Amino acid sequence: MDKTLYTLIVYSENIAGLLNQVTAVFTRRQINIESLNVSASSIDGVHKYTITAWTDEDTIKKVVKQIEKKIDVLQAHYFTDDEIFLQEIALYKISTPELQSNANVSKIIRRYNARIVEVNSVYSIVEKPGLTEEIIALYKELQEAGCVLQYVRSGRIAITKSRVERINEFLAGREEKHRHCYNDLN
Q1: What CA–CA distance (Å, rounded) separates 171 from 11?
Q2: What are the tens digits of pLDDT across the range 100-133?
């Protein structure tokens, strides 16, 4: 069975406990979630979940169908990496004395187009947005240089490459349907 890294984008109302219901779908199928990001979307009152997981297409289709059955979920879709724009961000806390004494550390940071966002006498904070592979590669090189004090990486954020967001079409259709129902009642 060939596994692919899929990105699920789920839109829902902002309801307490829904995240648990969504992640339970993965747990029941014994699928490990690689990354998870939940935030407000561009639509007022609608939240966007961006979830990545390694699985096969048949399984991911079933997962999406199960998630869409949740009462507070508006819509769910799965994508491969070529269908979306994606980013992550990482923060690296590195030793300022090591940064100052080892010129190679600063070269590594510049080579990855990362930027130093905070400097004090004890530590410096480096920020790196980008793809997972770049973020991990920078971490490994800084680790080899012996300067990493802490490291954290965000979950993936993603937007589709399609011109119109599917949730906008869905909500417009739902609004039209409500209007027809209201007019039929009057």
Answers
A1: 11
A2: 999 999 999 999 999 999 999 999 999 999 999 9
Q: Tell me the C-alpha to C-alpha distance, in Å, between residue 1 and each of 54, 55, 61, 66, 101.
A: 11, 9, 15, 21, 50
Q: Give the global pTM.
A: 0.77
Residue type, 174: R
State the number of CA atoms in the 13 A half-sphere of 157 facing the CB: 14
**DSSP code of 29?**
T
Alpha carbon 184 to its chain's center: 42
Nearest to 155 by CA among 39, 24, 19, 29: 39
Which residue is listed with tokens 């100052």? 100
Residue range 88-153 forms a domain whose CATH class is alpha beta
User: Any idea which architecture 4-79+157-185 has in CATH?
Assistant: 2-Layer Sandwich (3.30)
Q: Where in the chain is the domain with CATH 3.30.70.1150?
A: 88-153
Pairing of the two strands 4-13 and 73-79: antiparallel
CA distance 97 to 120: 10
